Amino acid sequence: MKRYNYKAKDKSGKLIKGEVEAVSESGAAKLVRSKSLLVLSIKQAYESPIDFIKKFKNRITPADVATFTRQFATMVGAGLPITESLLILRSQSKGSMGKVVSQVLADVEGGESMSKAFSKHPQVFSPTYIALVKSGEVGGVLDTVLIRLADSLEKQQEFKGKVKGALIYPAIIIIGMVIVAFIMMIFVIPRLTSLYDEFNAELPLPTRILIGMSDAVIKFWPITLLVVGGAIYGFQAYRKTKEGRLKTDELLFKLPIIGSLQREVILTELTSTLSLMAGAGVSILEGLNITSEVVGNSVIGNALKDVSKQVEKGFPVSFAFAKHPDAFPFILSQMVAVGEETGKMEEVLGKVSHVFEVESDQKVKTLTTAVEPIVMVILGLGVGFLVIAIILPIYNLTSQF
Q1: What is the pLDDT of residues 126-184, one digit of tens each?
Q2: Where does this one sit in the cell (predicted)?
Q3: Are the beta carbons of 66 and 51 closer than 8 angstroms?
C-alpha cells in the first residue's frame, strides 16, 4: 500500500486536501471520488525517516495474518455473514491491519469476491492464501478452508518460533564478540601501539595483524565503510540476478547443519501447503505453479516449475518429483506415488509434511546442541588471538631487560 496526497473540491467548490492509501494512483483517485469529491491532483507521498520508523513499527506480521484468519474463520464458521464478520474485525484490528480489513470490507460491500479483495493486498496475503480462499468460495466451503488455513498459519508460526529460539543464544554471543572486538581496536590497541613505538619493539605477526585491523577501523574508517558497503551491495546485486540467486541458494544447502535444516523447513511448508490446497479442491497443477512462485529457495522453486511442466505434459507427479533428487528427497516421490494410486493426495502430503517437521525439529535440537560448543571454540580462538597479540610483545620487551 502506498500513500497519496490529494487536492480536491467538494460540491460547494471548497478546496480539500488529504491523504489516502492505495495500491496505485488510479486506486487512490477512485477512493477520493468515492467521497463525492472532484479530484484536482494526486501525488505519491514520500516517507521521512520518522514515517519509515512508524511504518516499520506498525507493519503487518505473519502472526497478525494468522490471528486475523483464525478470528475470521471462527466467525464465518459460527454462521455470521462475511460483511458482518469483517465489520467486527475492522473494529478489533489496529494500525495497518485495520486499514487493510477496512479496504477489504469496502471491496466486498462493493460486490467483489473475497479472493479478489484479498488479492489487492499482495504484501499481506500470499498467492497461496488467495488461491485457497478462491477455492473455498467456488466450492462453497469457505468456513472449512479458513479453519484449515488458520491451523496451517499457526503451525508455521510455531515452527518458525522454534527455529528462531534456537538461534537467539549464538546470535547474542556473536554480537557480544563483535562489540568487544571493536572496543579493543578503538580504545585499547592504539594505546598499546604507542607503548610499543616508544620502546622500538619488534612486533610479532599476530600483533601486526591486530594493529593493521585497528588502523583500518580508526584511521581508514571511510575506506573500510566503502569496502564493506560495496561488498554488501555487490553481493545483493549478484543475489538479485537469476544465476546469483541460484548459486547462493545452492551454497546455502551445502552448509553443514544449517543447509539441511533450511531444506527441511522449506519442504515442511511446501508439502503442508500442497496438502492444504489438495484438500481445498485446488488442482495439483495449480498448486505446483503457485508454490513455485512463493517458495523461498530458487533451487526448489526451479525444480517445482519443471515438475509443473512435466505434470502438464501428462507425466505422473511422483515421476516429475523423482527427476529432481537434488531438491526433493526420495521419500517425497515415494509418498506422492502412493497418493496418486490411492487418490488420497491430501492425506499423504500431510503425512510427508509431518515427517519433514519431525526431522526439522530434530535438526533444530542438533543445531542448538552443536552451536554452543562451536561458538565457545570460536570465542576461545578470538580471545586467544587477542591475548597472544597483546601479551607477546610485552613478554619480548621484558625479556630484553
Answers
A1: 888 888 888 788 777 788 888 888 888 888 788 778 777 777 777 787 788 788 878 87
A2: Cell inner membrane
A3: no
Residues 170 and 371: their CA atoms lie apart, in Å, by 7
Ranges assigned E (strand) in 64-200? none
- Give the pLDDT confidence of 306-315 residue by residue, as tens digits: 999 999 998 9
Strand order in the sheet with 38-44: 15-22, 2-9, 38-44
Contacts of 317 (CB under 8 A, 6+ apart): 284, 307, 311, 336, 340
What kind of architecture, by CATH, is found in domain 140-401?
Up-down Bundle (1.20)
Q: At what angle do helices 298-312 and 242-254 cross, to 10 degrees?
A: 110
Cell reading at 119: 488479492
Q: What is the mean pLDDT of the chain?
A: 82
One-letter amino acid identity for 64?
Answer: D
50, pLDDT greater than 60: no
**229: which strand partners?**
none
- 60-125: CATH topology is Receptor-associated Protein (1.20.81)
* Domain boundary assignment for the chain: 2-46, 60-125, 140-401
In this structure, are residues 99 and 1 in contact, taking their beta carbons and an 8 Å threshold?
yes
Residue 171: count of CB within 10 angstroms of its CB:
12
Q: How large is the average pLDDT for residues 379-391? A: 80
CA pair distance 48, 265, nearest whole angstrom = 37
Q: How confident is the model at residue 47 (pLDDT cuts 50, 70, 90)?
A: low
The helix/strand count (H/E) of the chain reads as 18, 3
The answer to whether 299 and 250 have CB atoms below 8 angstroms apart is yes
Question: How far, CA to CA in Å, does 259 sit from each of 133, 164, 168, 179, 271?
Answer: 33, 15, 18, 27, 18
At residue 57's C-alpha, the angle toward residues 85 and 154, to 5°, is 50
Tell me the C-alpha distance between 353 and 359, whole Å. Answer: 10
Mean pLDDT of 264-281: 82
**CATH topology of 60-125 equal to that of 140-401?**
yes
* E-assigned strand segments in 343-392: none
Per DSSP, helices labelled H in 13-48 are 25-33
Distance CA 40, CA 34 (A): 14
